[in-house]
Give the backbone structure.
Amino acid sequence: MSAPIDTAPYDGAPGDSGESRPLLQLRHLSTNIALRRGTVHALDDVNLEVRPGETLGIVGESGSGKTMTALSVMGLLPSGGSVVGGQILFEGRDLRSLPPDEVRRIRGVRMGMVFQDPLTSLNPTMRIGTQVAEPLRVHEGVGKAEARARAIEILRRVGMPRADKIVDDYPHQLSGGMRQRVVIAMALICSPRLLIADEPTTALDVTTQRQILELIDDLREEFGMAVILVTHDLGVIAGRADRVAVMYAGRVVETAPTARLFRAPRHRYTEALMESLPESVTGETGAGKRLYSIPGLPPDLSRPLNGCRFAPRCRFATPECRTTEVTLSTGEHRYACLHPVTATTTATAVRTVPAPPSTEAPEAATEAILSVRDLVKDYGATTGGLLRRASGQVSAVAGVSFEVHPGETFGLVGESGCGKSTVGRLVVGLEKPTAGQIVLDGTDIATLNRRERRRTHRQVQLMFQDSYAAMNPRMRVDAILAEPLEIQQVGDTSARRARITELLDQVGLSRRVLERYPHEFSGGQLQRLGLARALALQPRLIVGDEPVSALDVSIQAQVLNLMRDLQRELGLAYVFISHDLSVVDYMSDRIGVMYLGKLVEVGPAHDVVRAARHPYTQALIDAVPSVDPEPAAPRENITIRGELPSALNPPTGCRFRTRCPIAEQICETEPPLAGDRHQVACHFPLRPEPRTAGAPTGGIG
Amino acid sequence: MTTPAETTGMSEGTSPQPDETPVRGLWRQGVEVFCENRLALVGLAMFVLLAAACFLGPLFYQTDQVHTDLSAVHLPPGTDGHPLGTDGVGYDQLGRLMLGGQTSIIVGLAAGILATVVGTVWGAIAGFAGGWVDAAMMRLVDAMMSIPSLFLFMLLAAIVTPSVSMLILIIGAFAWLGPARLVRGEALSLRSREYIQAMRSMGGAGGRAVRRHIIPNAIGTVIVNATFQIADAILYVAYLSFLGLGVPPPAANWGGMLSDGLADTFSGHWWLLYPPGIAIILIVLAFNFIGDGLRDAFEVRLRRR
């Protein structure tokens, strides 16, 4: 039974509905995936439409069915998957009832698809040009020479430098961003009416992400095509899409024009999702507020579900929600919710309840728990030949210095390849520095002998990005948690047992998990276990290497909250490494920005993010897509073009100068990291350091 | 310890999903998956039946497999007292099948296990040590692999007098190359896993890595491979015996019987040819089925995420 919801008047004028007939329309689309044990109902009654020339954003967490929607349209479902009901209307014709040959032509010529990982979506043994032109040769029977010419032309249009050279290259010769351009070129070569981009930028760095998203935007206008942008990142959607569809557990729960959705979401899930974003808290005055985190886990789609699928995790659910099938309302802003957000019942009141006391201000005089001085790490690069001659040095970390005080979070942010993870690995002792000091609690760990060094592992522990990979799949949770205690020979069996149960309490897991194996847990639970293991030896410092990057937004909020709670309770210090500026901003007291092995800026989190002094930091901040669809102030927009230089042969002087918009002659000499609290390594800092020494921004004085 | 964290757990309702399903050990799960695989069960049953027939059969069905009886040669099946007939020197064919099966199974199992153990140790050391140790050890393996094994078997078997233990050694001496390569590759990839790094970041050393992490994670591959090694070893015994290089009479094995039977192909003595041939096919199939089932059983926990 379906309950009608307040039907908003249909916004679109009746006249124009005929003119903008949808290009693609999904009606009651249902897709199943048959697995070994049972059938997963990946999509259940999905209704969507895309009009010509518009960008539709599909957003949702993993398992919400957003990718399955794209794959159903393209007919690329994984083995066992099949569309079992509904219609896929493309230009008014149902792809499900057309003959297969015709469908193949429509999908090949009129639609194009861009996948997440540009490395695996290109054939490593084929030249770029041949690959890009393949659809032409298949669908239009174009000759070799013409195919090549058109491949060069399309590569030029997606912004490839030296397109006539690159056609003869192989994929491995290109960087990630360039490969994604090739994939886009391949999707566009037949001039499709519809481009489906499935997480096109998730595998890329923010600055590259920005370039690719802008490219897709430009091409959409140029080709007059429609775009479906599938992503988990609300920020990406907010900046680029005309309309947004939010998916949850195989259903579309809300669709609306982008600005409207982000300003006033109606569905409780959309609302909760936005409140889980670190940005939602840090944007306001008080840093240190708790994030709202959606409790529980998404439902298991292989079981029959009743009622609103979000009801078990919803703050506003009533018994009615669990039993009534809710359908999308009609109109411009559609949502499937019995208790939608209205202007009066915004959830802000609810969120502020568990707000902790304001940020603890650590005494300025406390001695640093970790002090890193002029840390250098070079890796010898070898030629691939038989004799393995050393062909040079990869300079991964080049003279990094910073301090971390007890109870403080030091955020380390930068793009991939900037050396932030290497710093983390050096600090926990997984690698030995080439030069420089790592002073842990007053002792330089390089001077210690083997036994003493082994003991220093009690002081500092590492938390991994993928806790599943970091746990032996053959070990039960009790053995996993006991391992650090065994290695360090702490206590006897019963004492260890007691410590383990205490740890589980601390991270909020039930004791029953002890007899289970890692594969039985979800990502968030694994991250809790990873944290518990890191805490086992009662360290004073935890290095988190992208600890929440693999998690969905709502789960990420749970883990971030937990990390902050434990920090307050145990007086932990964190080195929080992430590529995600908003997460680092939320978590950290102070932030260090790394570029190509060097720290370019260090300062209080608030200042670094809101008053960046280094042009690279500013570029990084500008590149991060914001969920605010219309930024209040037009940004200065420092965009950096080009690619990260090779660490094998880094630029002399300021390493950023090759991409810096304001670089001058003097930048060939190395700028020192200068400043008092907000340090920057730049000859032309964007801003002077604020004079207000000792401002109560919650940093270290 | 009442902590904010504990209330976090409650308020955020982390109610771990695995709680809903009963706790089952990996061993139990593995056995279950193995049993789901019909062919694996069939293979197991085939092996048990064949082994029981060969080793327990002679207790109930006693025949003289030492003295020839030239008055009863080439008796067809169904002759009184000889359900499967007799061969060219008057041995009872059914009794001979049992006796030959004993040799084949013993040599197969022993040589397969020997090869697996030697190969695993060799490969694990090479893979975990890496560097020039790895290079030297694996070049030896490559060198030995480049020699045609059948040729070597023949050479060796011609030099030494074949006996059961000698056969085991000869086959084992060459069959370990496969598992060595396999385990070396496995160790090489396991060595760089994040859980080994996690262990190192806790202060653990190499010995612990091998004991607690590398071996338990490589054991699945090793055991699955062992079943195929056993099947191969049984075939090798058959090859050697077929070429006349097996255990000398009056001892018997299936390969040798096949070879003898082949001489009689055109005399119409089919009962000398088919039974040992079918027996070899059955036991090799049985081990291959078991191996497939074991592979599923060992992989399941990793796949069901």
